[in-house]
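Dear Dr. H.,

I hope your travels went smoothly. While you were away I took the liberty of generating a structure for the chain from your last submission, since the lab meeting agenda had it listed for discussion. I wanted you to have the full record in hand beforehand rather than looking at slides cold. The sequence, exactly as received, is reproduced here:
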Amino acid sequence: TDKYPKLRFGIGNNYPKGMQAEFVLSKWLPEEKPIILKKIESSVQCIENFASIGIERTMNLVNNLHFT
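The corresponding predicted structure, in token form, is as follows:
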């Protein structure tokens, strides 16, 4: 729904066709841990920005961040 703002993470596309659910539900690889930690830190900042500067300015700040 687009009736309320939400924070989303992309999952990439590094999985075989038809295996999205298995990919999403699988355990993270050790080399993915630093990326996940960066995303968590960024999520906290995003939530704080949303509360203080609003959704539009927050989206402008974070929509093009890359973590890899």
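Two observations you may find useful: The radius of gyration is 14 Å. The chain has a mean pLDDT of 84.

With kind regards,
E. W.
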